[in-house]
Amino acid sequence: MTSPASAELATRERTTTLLGGEATDANLRRYLHGIPGIDAVGLEARAAGLGTRSIKTSSKRWAIDTIISLIDLTTLEGADTHGKVRSLVSKAVSPDPSSPDCPRVAAVCVYGDMVSVAVEALGAAHSARTPETPDAGIRVAAVATAFPSGRASLAVKLADVADAVSAGADEIDMVIDRGAFLSGRYGQVYDEIVAVKAACARADGADAHLKVILETGELNTYDNVRRASWLAILAGGDFIKTSTGKVAPAATLPVTLSMLEVVRDWHRLTGVKIGVKPAGGIRTSKDAIKYLVTVAETVGEEWLTPQLFRFGASSLLNDVLLQRQKMTTGHYSGPDYVTID
Amino acid sequence: MTRLTVPKTYKLYIGGKFPRSESGRVYAVSSAGGDFLANAAKGSRKDARDAVVAARAALKGWSGATAYNRGQVLYRIAELLEGRRAQFIDEIMQAEGASAAAASAQVDDAIDAWVWYAGWADKYVQVAGNANPVSGPYFNLSVPEPTGVVAIVAPQAGGSLLGFVSAVAPALVAGNTVVVIAHETAPLTAISLGEVLATSDVPGGVVNILTGSPAEIAPWLASHADVNALDLLGAGALDWVNLQIAAADTLKRVLPPEPDAAPSLARILAFTETKTVWHTKSLL
Fold this sequence. Notes:
The structure holds 2 protein chains of 2 kinds.
Chain A: H1 4-19, H2 25-33, H3 40-50, H4 57-69, E1 71-74, H5 82-93, E2 107-111, H6 115-122, E3 139-144, H7 154-166, E4 171-175, H8 178-182, H9 186-199, E5 209-213, H10 222-234, E6 239-241, H11 253-270, E7 275-277, H12 285-298, E8 311-313, H13 316-329
Parallel strand pairs in A: 1-2, 1-8, 2-3, 3-4, 4-5, 5-6, 6-7
Chain B: E1 9-10, E2 26-30, E3 36-41, H1 45-64, H2 67-83, H3 85-96, H4 100-120, H5 124-128, E4 130-131, E5 138-146, E6 149-153, H6 160-173, E7 177-181, H7 188-199, E8 207-210, H8 214-223, E9 229-231, H9 240-248, E10 253-255, H10 265-269, E11 272-280
Parallel strand pairs in B: 1-3, 6-7, 6-9, 7-8, 9-10
Antiparallel strand pairs in B: 2-3, 4-5, 5-11
Family (chain A): Belongs to the DeoC/FbaB aldolase family. DeoC type 2 subfamily.
Keywords (chain A): Lyase, Schiff base
Catalytic activity (chain A): 2-deoxy-D-ribose 5-phosphate = D-glyceraldehyde 3-phosphate + acetaldehyde
């Protein structure tokens, strides 16, 4: 087990080795802008091609259960109440009460102040991420760092993270400072992610997992998405996540594909597996299956586990459950047979 | 030089749009004399699924419209049908081998049926609803409300246009939205009526028309959990008892096949549910 300080040091050393210097604006800029650009037309054509696969019968059945087990069931509204979080948790524990073999979702994702409510509601179903049990139980993920805009001072962001972690969050979804990124202050973005990662440390030694939200809808180009992905991974993010869900366009297949390519390249370079989480805008099981195909074809099927791939979604689960009911009963189901969220 | 004919391919009418069948299938529709008339889309279970989604989405707006407004919209259909009567007479003569006089009479009857049902839109509640006497200082009111999404197997009885209208119009009066399977061998007037509906004031999704084999599509609608009622008016030739059994799983309201569907208040009320509310007579 490494202490937070030494982990941070290791991250910085790795960056220094890769960049050939400290993680300054100039060095990061040289490195990130040295990454080959993206052929946008080719990327979109590739994503569209992956979306045409026909997944039927037993494969579809497998895909549907896999999708459920990869969902971060999310509620991120200003109007969230304790009751709403509790009902979200009960849905996470048994997504389809009429079907006991329905898998549980990977995690529930809430605002920081709702973490303690979610932890309490999960009870025995909640299994904190410890080194011994990396994948048991439902996790609690919290958005932090002045989500969704990220417009707050670093001190406030770190306090936000520490608060969620101490309340029992197993995963932290942070947003990067898109303003700083777009104006070329890469060093600031890097330092922030490193600092947030350090704040994810828990007393018991098991860090909260850090998901870095790039908010690709505000990054404008695929090249920027690729650079932001590299930057987030360099700075020690465990997951890279497309969007907050508050900005349109949210997750799209080409954007996710480009992020998966970065993850693939990073795995080849270092042997480390980074997770990817498309979030926002994925509402149908048909869409979700396209993402499964893209993951399997880009980084490999071993990424289709909750440790390495997640869907950030709220309404997706209902559509997947309707599909599942259709496959179980043989007739079409309807919205009366799933929850109203 | 002789001109090539340009036969029309009739498509489905789902959610206010005219899509081809998801399955890509078509089938040839012949005249009464056996000549090729046109190709029509051969709808599949997935087209039925899409139609139910469209009908469900349209239900809130249509059932929430005022009764007076629904009446106006239905009357407008009659107006537009009147304007295109020549086309319908022509289609009926070709499809059914009817005489010009018989076809004209059928179009008249269909237009009259729309007008008749349009008139009921803001009146049937007064007839079917009631202020119930109760022994207390309360109003006790029963009002009919629309059942929801109604799946209809359209009949041929009375002609392809009249049969279709007499099945669809009464369900619309109360604010239901419908998914109709047109008659298999004479579906063209139904789709032409869809073109009338699309240019009238009927919101997209309120009427959804499928063509193809009712024997193939109807079981999927009968068992569909998001369909609230099933009108088997034209399903006499199908294995309709099994459709009824499939519908029972989700407690659908089911109307059995009938030889005749003359306009009647009973047909409107068949697709309503009675809601009864109590209300105090005063706050004193």
